[in-house]
Amino acid sequence: MIGRRTLIGGGAGLLLAGCDRVVQVPAARRILFAGEDMQRGLQRALMDRSALAPEFDAAQRSPFFRPNGTRDPGTANYAALRAGKFADWRLTVGGLVARPLSLSLADLGAMPQRAQITRHDCVEGWSAIAKWQGPQLATVLRAAGLRDAARYVMFTCADLYGGVPYYETIDLVDAFHPQTILAWALNDRFLPVMNGAPCRLRVERQLGYKHAKYLMRIDAIASLAGIGQGKGGYWEDNVDYDWYAGI
Amino acid sequence: MDAPPGTIIRRHAIGTRIWHWVNAVAIFILLGSGLGISNAHPRLYWGRYGANFDPAWLELPRFPGWITIPASYNLAISRRWHLFFALVLGFGLLAYMVWSLVNRHFARDLRLHRRELSAAHLRADFRAHLDFRFHDPERPRDYNIFQKLSYILVIFVALPLAILTGIALSPGMNAAWPWVLDLFGGRQSARSIHFLTATGIGLFTIVHLVLVILAGPLNEVRSMLTGRWRVPE
Question: How does it sit in the membrane (chain B) (predicted)?
């Protein structure tokens, strides 16, 4: 007779291994991955469109804001921009817009600013609190004038992953959220290179990998289908991270 | 209460049985995938923030592949399992609670009576446990006091706490329900409590399985599948 302990231990092992087999079955994988749509639907139903992420006071900030992902894009183009203190850097705003823009750091600084002390949550589990400043993305998008077909906003970055620029997308709910800013300052100083200089996205109701660093282009797009492998971001396309990173 | 030893009685209502197994699967997957997620950043903090340069109150070991889902480290897939079955756990518990109020399962089986909480009764029941006697021959259908207390603790404290601390980890839900975050004193505190609660639920599950074996696994498992339970000798 098989010992009861063996039975339970072995049973648990089989179940765990079973989970790995289940993920290989396309239909089961689709059901499991539909969890993302359920979570997004629930969260959007429970939260006001413009509900704010918690903000903190200066004393509640992390002593050090941990960088993550790329610490320095290291390309010749980026090195040149960096050497010139980003005076030659331009943020291109295009795609489905009426008036394409090319914005310098000074242009961003001349727009109405929003400063916010918010918490950055990495998908891995850690959090860091810091102060960010920059114009709202909504200001820039209104200046460019979105065409009716635009449904998403895509961010293309200076850092390369596998030879391809990092990219991320958000929908218009988050793009026009009051806390979604193009941050050029971190804790009252110009954004350091390790944190995405000269400008990064802050999209405060989602996890860190959505907050694209080293911004180069912003494009209004109609669908996620045409970019990368169609899932809306580098990590989404390559390692199955959720496109909706509100949880 | 005429249920002499050997007779078969109806022990568990259909709602209780369905929830038991749905929840068992959810707990199993949530614990396995949770350990996989822990491996991504195995440090726990108190307060609102916490990252590598901040002091951790606990550094967790790297959990081996035989207890994580998936077996080989993959944060994205661990999260997919975890966040899908979090919904199964949450809405399953909600449905079970409503069902158990309607069919009076809570009122009938989990309500504590004064006499059960007397020191004498607790002592007597504790001694009975040491003798592996888990049922009062006078009232074989009733849960014993330790059973009641542990079920109450799991159903009304541990599971809701795991769900609420989980909600507190979501930046989206922080905007929707900021009070959940305040309840636990910040996201990293909520993450620590989430881990501690999960540990408690894991320990409960182990004790629960051991007691099922000691109480007679065939009879106990059958009662949770069919509802029919044989009163022990």
Answer: Multi-pass membrane protein
Q: Which CATH class is domain A50-239?
A: alpha beta
Answer yes or no: do B49 and A129 touch at CB < 8 A. yes
Is the CB of residue A179 less than 8 Å from the CB of residue A116? yes
Complex ipTM, two decimals? 0.93
Residue type at A60 in one-letter notation: Q
Per-residue pLDDT of chain A (247 residues; tens, 9 = 90+): 455 555 556 667 777 888 889 999 999 999 999 999 999 999 999 999 999 999 999 999 999 999 999 999 999 999 999 999 999 999 999 999 999 999 999 999 999 999 999 999 999 999 999 999 999 999 999 999 999 999 999 999 999 999 999 999 999 999 999 999 999 999 999 999 999 999 999 999 999 999 999 999 999 999 999 899 999 999 999 999 999 999 9
Write phi, then psi, for B220 (nearest 5 degrees).
Answer: -70, -45
Nearest CA in chain A to B181: A54
Token pair listed for A58: 């200066």
When divided into structural domains, chain B yields a total of 1
The CATH number of whichever domain residue B72 belongs to comes to: 1.20.950.20
Express each pLDDT in A144-168 by its tens digit. 999 999 999 999 999 999 999 999 9
Residues of B in contact with A36 (CB under 8 A): 80, 83
**Helices (runs of H) and strands (runs of E) counted in chain B:** 10, 4
Contacts of B181 in chain A (CB under 8 A): 54
Q: Looking at the complex, does the CB of residue A47 fall below 8 Å from at least one CB of chain B?
A: yes
B32 lies in some domain = yes
A104 φ, ψ (degrees, to nearest 5)? -90, 170
Cα torsion for A70, A76, A78, A82, to the nearest 10°? 110
Put simply, whether A50 touches B (Cβ < 8 Å) is no
Interface of B with A in 161-190 (CB under 8 A): 169-178, 181, 187-188
Domain residue limits, chain A: 1-46, 50-239
Give the rounded percent of residues in chain B with a pLDDT score beyond 90: 91
User: Are A236 and A36 contacting, i.e. CB atoms less than 8 angstroms apart?
Assistant: no
For residue A75, which amino acid is it?
T
Nearest to B170 among A15, A126, A246 (CB): A246
pLDDT digits (tens, 9 = 90+) for A28-56: 999 999 999 999 999 999 999 999 999 99
Question: Within a domain: residue B186?
Answer: yes
Q: Is the pLDDT of residue B23 over 70?
A: yes
Q: List the single best residue of B29, B82, B173, B221 to mutate versus A (max A Cβ within 10 A).
A: B173
Identify the domain containing residue B25 by its residue range. Answer: 8-230
- The rounded mean pLDDT for chain A is 95
Tokens coding A214: 């080293």
Phi/psi at A119 (nearest 5 deg)? -105, 135
